[in-house]
Mycothiol S-conjugate amidase (Geodermatophilus sabuli), 295 residues
Amino acid sequence: MTEADPLRLLAVHAHPDDESSKGAATMAKYVAEGVRVMVATCTGGERGSVLNPALDRPDVWERLPQIRVEEMARAREILGVEQEFLGFVDSGLPEGDPLPPLPEGCFALVPLEEAAAPLVELIRRFRPQVITTYDERGGYPHPDHIKTHEISVHAFEAAGDPDRYPGLGEPWQPSKLYYHMGFTLPRTRALHEAILASGHESPYAEWLENWDPDRDLSHRVTTRVHCAEYFAVRDAALIAHATQIDPTGRWFACPLEVQQRVWPTEDYELARSVVDSPVPEDDLFAGVRSEVTVR
Ligand SMILES: [Zn+2]
């Protein structure tokens, strides 16, 4: 007798809203296919600010941590995913020269072994075949994003080892680990040129001028997931994080139709794999599907 073991995807993110700006259309696509998708949110985003001018009010600032939980719940419903907070406290984005020390007790300061424990427990309970996270630079240099990368790699390697983290559940080895490669130079350039060609002003001109080509990671992309029909779902989820996004800002300045035509994929780097999955590929579950359908 054969029994299908459902496919499960775990996306590890630093703050509420990150799941809606990185890989959201991919998640919505897999949810539509019947894949179980779980978002792990490392921190509550307590030290974020209000980035939407329309909500920059004292009553909003006062309730910000609670509001961010409510926003996350709405985004979760829109994306059709499950979601859990891992319970760490936002480190904030340090600014100044020299940089101020990180606040005591924040996520970035928790020792790695301890910081990865809740994620190991979640992996052993949810049993994802695929995990997505940020690259070693964090995608952008927020200490929580870098820490998110570190615990994801650590937990990917530890969750299947019965000698590590005893007491946190039955060992489970995920098959593949991916890094988001969403903000690449070729994509931004392609969108920029398409907007100009359509006779509009590009929101990316300044970005492109200041882009250090050495920091572009597009050569590392192994995997492009076609998910253009879910870009609108992604945008709706992002707007649900109302305090964190200016609906009149750069995020929404590129027409959806242009994005769907010019760059219809979300892109990833396959960073670890314990299954045979030759790259390039267009499916995060490539090499996994055949193994889980029969057991
Ligand atoms: Zn973040």
Q: What stands out?
A: Residues 14-15, 18, 142, 145 surround zinc ion (CB under 6 Å). The chain has a mean pLDDT of 94.
